[in-house]
Amino acid sequence: GRCVAEVSRRLPVRHTPGGGREIDAGSLDTALDGAFSRLRLAVGGRWRRVSGVGVAAQGGSTMMVERDSGRAVSPMYLWNDARASGWVSRLAVEHGKAFWRRLFGFDMPPTGLGRIAWLREQRPELFNARYLHAGAGEYLFRRLTGIWRQDAGNAIQAGSYNARTRRLDGTALELVGVSLDFVAPLRQGHETAQLDRDAARKFKLAEGIAVTGPYIDQEASYLSAAGAGSNPLQVSMGTAWVGNFSIPQGMTGSSPSQLVLPPLLDKSPFVIQPLYAGNSTWDWALETFAGRPHSAALRAAAGAFARAILPHPGLVCIPYCAQQNPLRPDQYGGGVYLGVGTGTSRSDFLRATAVGLVCELGRVFAGLASSGAVDAVVLGGGASRGAYFRQLSALAFGRLPVLWQSDYNLSAARGSLFALSPRASGASQFKRVDAPAELAEPFRRAFEIYESAFDEVYGRNPDLRPYACRAK
Asked: Is the pLDDT reported for residue 463 higher than 80?
């Protein structure tokens, strides 16, 4: 499980009017090719000993490809591309919550389904038998193996996976005029494929070695953290904060926004629970209250938290700054600050934002933690690098042990190798996070204020209910 070499490539995201976020498919190819090339140089003569490749990718992306050649004919539209929000709202009005819940286990249309409808409106010439809908995982897996295959996480976000039957289902796709053969076949369990001749020649690897996946990044990250407890809650503190866990036998759970996927380790369903807040809000707060560049803002934040980890009493932030407004769904931005006074400083706003992010994490998962369904919390993702986020999380989860996956940047890569080596997959480095005892009572009061503020502003919105878990 020891990491021999590590390479990363940043993918340039293009922002367009109307909330568009997209990546040129050529950037995926360049990143993959460059990563393999750098790894080969770093490893040297041991490169010939490579015996497998794991594929994990961001879920919820949309791109159009030629079915036979695999060539991309559109950009990759990211999961947080907002241009299809009108279609999502239209589908929500036309078909009630019971319809979506029966298919997917959550209460609203999948955003990827709305994006398919929007794209069909924009590019109707791509909707015929020559083309296929794919996400990042399918696209890269096809480059390595010549096989089209998708994970359930990407499929459910495109509206093509039935959470109850655990199979592909064309019911929702038909609503937007698309048939089920418009998407790739589903990955079964931890099955593998073989590296094909073209990829082996290009990357100087042995033809026929195993290729695993594709996994949605949340699946792979959970597999790398699963050994931290008998049933942990793995929290990804990334662009969107997400909790990943398995529902134990004898228990059931639900929320309006969960993704319920096939079991990863046993017969228990695997759940991805996104939050309506994350590092998009934190990045905005850093720029607004700590300035630019980003590195200097992070240093300023560290200094502010060194002086005090909590804002002045009574100041609270509901951190929905990068979401549609829950009170006005046709408008963007649902963030709220309450308790602002003439003495409120920029540092207080920064602290309130961080505390609000962690309080929202605690609010959503309080029932899961208190039910005994999970026995540890594992933190990973970009924001977990901040000691203040780790300490606040330890305060939020009280008696549960909170661990930091310090090599979180390798988590998805490790987890994608589960089918080849469970030992290497789970060889992450975990560090226990201790909650500052002197902050236990002040944080408890801050959390109470957060819950009161949330109930006053958004408490009547059923779509924002926390995750509920109970014995069957």
From this structure: yes
